[in-house]
């Protein structure tokens, strides 16, 4: 029996690496595609093939998704997060989705349309008056990055409505994890491990819904298993509990102290940069019950355990 072929775009990235690990025990063929070769585990039930490709170059994307039964689209460019070069980031954040759908639209195919699972962001909703958010709110994206994510998601929904793909978007909250994490929690943990103060742009009461990357990877696998019930919509992921950033940073300082043997570094408030978007100062809490009710997915890692794992991984990677 032919194994389903799952192409993971952005496979060498932070989330992509976790998705590869989550797929390793499945009886599937995984095609790991990234600008640089992805590191994959060759143990387990899955068969792996790797391809190094710049997906903004004509022709590379067609080869990457040829014959795929499902595509996990994790490619992103965060340059537009600070509005530095929106045209360049749009080529990645919107252009790759447009090209992907064009490839799948023009490819001869028998049977059902392929699944496309896309990584969106809960910040696409923009400012809201009430928390938690559950995905039913009208979207008012404020940053260039969020508008680009919204554009890509809309293209996917339109293609799903036309029967080109079975597309779905998983909107991610603040994701964190191991040694390859480039997010704010990892950055502050690295500072704490180096003996430097942890800084924040507010008084620490701003809350975030924080999700470990392993739980995110499990959500993508669950989405592939329930694609028919999820197609054509966006779905929010989160732990369902938000935590003040100041509290999280103090936990990180304590965890780093346990590794270094030094006293915990201070957590201090500093003036924000002039270009800091308003979303950085707005609390986020996510009600992911809609996705959970369809897929049965649940976050497995408690926050304290997940932060401990992250800090340990960063300490080991710094050796």
Question: Can you characterise this structure?
Answer:
InterPro entries: Epimerase_deHydtase (IPR001509), Lipid_A_modif_metabolic_enz (IPR050177), NAD(P)-bd_dom_sf (IPR036291). Pfam families: Epimerase. Residues 6-238 form the NAD-dependent epimerase/dehydratase domain. By secondary structure, this protein is α/β, with parallel strands linked by helices. It has a domain at 5-177 and 210-241 and 292-300: Rossmann fold (3-Layer(aba) Sandwich). Helix content is 37%, strand content 17%. The chain contains eleven helices and 13 strands. Strands 3-2-1-4-5-6-11 form a seven-stranded parallel beta sheet, sandwiched between helices. The chain has a two-stranded parallel ribbon with strand order 7-10. Helix 5 (144-161) links the parallel strand 5 and strand 6 (166-172). The longest helix is centred in the middle third of the chain and has 18 residues, at 144-161. The radius of gyration is 20 Å and the shape is globular.
| Cα-to-Cα separation, first versus last residue | 45 Å
Average pLDDT over all residues: 92
Which stretches are poorly predicted, pLDDT < 50 over at least 5 residues? none
Helix content: 25-40%
SS strand fraction: 15-25%
- Strand order across the largest sheet: 3-2-1-4-5-6-11
Helical region count? Answer: 11
Secondary-structure class: alpha/beta
CATH class of the domain at 5-177 and 210-241 and 292-300: Alpha Beta
* Strand runs, count: 13
Q: What would the CATH topology of the domain at 5-177 and 210-241 and 292-300 be?
A: Rossmann fold
Written as H for each helix and E for each strand, in order along the chain, the element string is EHEEHEHHEHEEHEEEHHEEHEHH
CATH architecture of the domain at 5-177 and 210-241 and 292-300: 3-Layer(aba) Sandwich
- Largest beta-sheet characterization: 7 strands, parallel
Name of the CATH homologous superfamily of the domain at 5-177 and 210-241 and 292-300: NAD(P)-binding Rossmann-like Domain
From the spread of the alpha carbons, the general shape counts as: globular
What's the gyration radius in Å?
Answer: 20 Å
Protein name: NAD-dependent epimerase/dehydratase
Domain NAD-dependent epimerase/dehydratase: 6-238
Pfam families: Epimerase (PF01370)
Organism: Nonomuraea purpurea
């Amino acid at each position: 029996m032919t194994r389903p072929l799952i192409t993971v775009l952005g496979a060498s990235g932070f989330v992509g690496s976790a998705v590869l690990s989550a797929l390793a025990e499945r009886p599937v063929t995984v095609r790991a595609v990234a600008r640089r070769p992805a590191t994959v585990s060759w143990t387990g039930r899955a068969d792996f093939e790797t391809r190094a490709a710049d997906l903004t170059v004509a022709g590379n994307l067609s080869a990457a998704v040829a014959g795929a039964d499902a595509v996990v689209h994790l490619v992103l460019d965060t340059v537009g997060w600070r509005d530095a070069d929106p045209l360049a980031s749009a080529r990645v954040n919107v252009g790759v989705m447009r090209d992907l759908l064009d490839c799948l639209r023009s490819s001869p195919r028998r049977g059902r349309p392929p699944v496309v699972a896309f990584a969106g962001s809960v910040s696409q909703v923009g400012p809201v008056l009430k928390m938690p958010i559950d995905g039913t709110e009208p979207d008012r994206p404020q940053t260039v990055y969020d508008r680009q994510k919204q554009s890509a998601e809309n293209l996917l929904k339109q293609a799903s409505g036309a029967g080109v793909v079975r597309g779905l978007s998983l909107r991610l909250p603040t994701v964190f994890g191991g040694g390859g994490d480039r997010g704010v929690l990892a950055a502050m943990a690295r500072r704490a491990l180096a003996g430097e103060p942890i800084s924040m742009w507010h008084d620490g009461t701003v809350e975030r819904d924080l999700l470990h990357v392993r739980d995110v990877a499990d959500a993508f696998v669950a989405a592939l298993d329930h694609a028919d019930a999820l197609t054509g919509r966006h779905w929010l992921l989160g732990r369902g509990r938000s935590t003040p950033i100041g509290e999280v940073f103090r936990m990180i300082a304590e965890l780093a102290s346990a590794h270094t043997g030094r006293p915990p570094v201070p957590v201090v408030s500093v003036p924000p940069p002039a270009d800091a978007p308003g979303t950085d100062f707005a609390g986020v809490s996510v009600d992911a019950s809609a996705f959970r009710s369809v897929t049965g997915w649940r976050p497995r890692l408690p926050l304290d355990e997940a932060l401990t794992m992250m800090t340990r991984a960063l300490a080991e990677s710094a050796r």
